[in-house]
Amino acid sequence: MFMASGIALCLSAAQAQDFKQKGGDNNLQLLFAPFGSNPISLNEGITYRRFLKDGSMAVRLSLSVSSSKETDVLQQSDDTLSFPTSVFYNGPFPGGANFDLITGMNPETNLVTKESGFSIRPGFEKHLAGTERLSPYFGAEIVFSSSKTKISRDTIVVSDFTATVTDTLSDDVTISAPWKTQSLGTTYGSKTFGVNLIAGMDYYFTKNLSLGAEFGFGFYSTKYTDYDSDYLKVTDTAPVVGPDPNGVSSATVTHSTTVESNPSLKRGKDSGFGPVVTARIKLGWLF
Q1: Which domain holds residue 251?
Q2: Residue 232: beta bridge partners?
Q3: Does residue 244 lie in a domain region?
Q4: Which H/E stretch holds residue 4?
Q5: Bridge partner list, 52
Q6: pTM of this prediction?
Q7: Residue 14: is it exposed, middle or buried by C-beta count within 10 angstroms (0-12/13-18/19+)?
Q8: Of 36, 37, 125, 281, whose CB neighbour count within 10 A is largest?
């Protein structure tokens, strides 16, 4: 066994460069989950490495970009149980005409959630001798990451309208003011800075192709960005003009709904340190 091991080590030393990296080589790595629903995941990030000297040193840059959008229907457009087909609006003159607003069927309302994020992690690696196909290493990286979430929720309101009436008019005025949706948004996110000490290994199962894993220990500090939200501002005006030479006063009634922003709410921050583990296998291509 000892003799066979010695012969194997000698052969490995003689052929070490047949499979493993050399100085000047480039390497791309991505995460690979062979038993997952998404075996190759670009959202988890991709790593570029440039090997220096004789292949024992490498500089690296890991980049991850993600984006998602989810839409949930809160209420169908044909659901007329929650909102009537017409509403009543008081007139500006006591005992005078009022307004009947013909609103019709309510529209569809949705809840939309958008999430996005990115991280960038520059670092370096020191590779050890290993074996013919195995290249263990250790190193460090700096982490910069950011995330943002925006939630938009539709609410149903009466559309804007304008109408003019007189104090002599007693019959109700009918106005077309169909229901419309206004979207109220809520936005928040985070920014993170960290430093990781890492160790890992690459196994070249064939020339220029490798599988690997990585783990380490790191520190992070996260600042949560302000919490911004919207609200509806309803404005009703009925300025009265007159009376005219005939003693008749008139009023122009306006109704509008706008989206305004609440004052931003401050959010906190946190920090910590602990193990850093890449839970999936890294698939690497050497070129």
Answers
A1: 20-286
A2: 259
A3: yes
A4: helix 2-14
A5: 57
A6: 0.75
A7: exposed
A8: 125
Cα of first residue to Cα of last residue in the chain, in angstroms, is 36
Task: Report yes or no on 14 lying in a domain.
Answer: no
For residue 4, list its beta bridge partners. none
Distances (CA, A) of 125 to 55, 56, 220: 10, 8, 20
Number of domains in the chain: 1
Q: Cα separations (Å) of 190 from 34, 42, 252?
A: 31, 21, 48
* Euclidean distance between CA atoms 24 and 226, whole angstroms: 45
4 in any annotated domain: no
Collapse the DSSP code of 9 into the 3-class scheme (helix H, G, I; strand E, B; otherwise coil) and give the result.
helix
- Write out the two tokens for 106: 């309510």
Q: What is the DSSP letter of 227?
A: B
CA distance 247 to 182: 41
Pairwise CA distance, residues 21 & 31, whole Å? 19
Q: Is residue 243 part of a domain?
A: yes
- Across 160-168, average pLDDT: 91
C-beta neighbour count of 268 within 10 angstroms: 7
Rounded distance, CA 287 to CA 284, Å? Answer: 10
